[in-house]
Design a protein that fits this description.
It is a single chain. The chain has 125 residues and is mainly alpha-helical. It has one domain: Globin-like, CATH 1.10.490. This is DUF2267 domain-containing protein. InterPro entries: DUF2267, DUF2267_sf.
Length: 125
């Protein structure tokens, strides 16, 4: 999937402008790089548009085990949006990731994120 297609999916799913979708997508990827192990972040980056590669470069090989609320706060702060937009954007980004990567990679990502994160995207089509 191209970068533009990915951002368009995020914007449509979350009801965001293209600019907001772009900011939230990059902020979500950056936050994922902190929440996933270094190896998993690199595996994910290999299957997404190249434009997200730098966002997903891990700063540490160990995953930081924060939950959904902290994830939302970090994305909102990085993207410069309120938490409501961040929440909708995170769900849309995760759904776009699910639609882009292999089922094995999606399973690997979700196994590290856990049930709390999986529940966010269960109902998205």
């Amino acid at each position: 999937m191209s970068h533009e297609s990915f951002i368009q999916k995020v914007a449509e799913r979350a009801g965001l402008s293209r600019v907001e979708a772009e900011a939230i997508a990059h902020a979500t990827m950056r936050t994922l790089s902190e929440r996933l192990t270094g190896g998993e972040a690199r595996d994910l980056a290999a299957q997404l548009p190249r434009s997200f590669y730098e966002d997903l470069l891990p700063t540490d090989e160990k995953a930081d085990g924060f939950g959904v609320d902290e994830f939302r706060r970090r994305v909102a702060d990085r993207a410069g949006v309120d938490r409501e937009k961040a929440s909708a954007g995170i769900v849309a980004v995760l759904a776009a990731i699910r639609d882009t990567v292999t089922s094995t990679e999606w399973h690997d990502v979700m196994s590290q994120l856990g049930k709390e994160f999986a529940q966010l995207v269960e109902t998205t089509g």
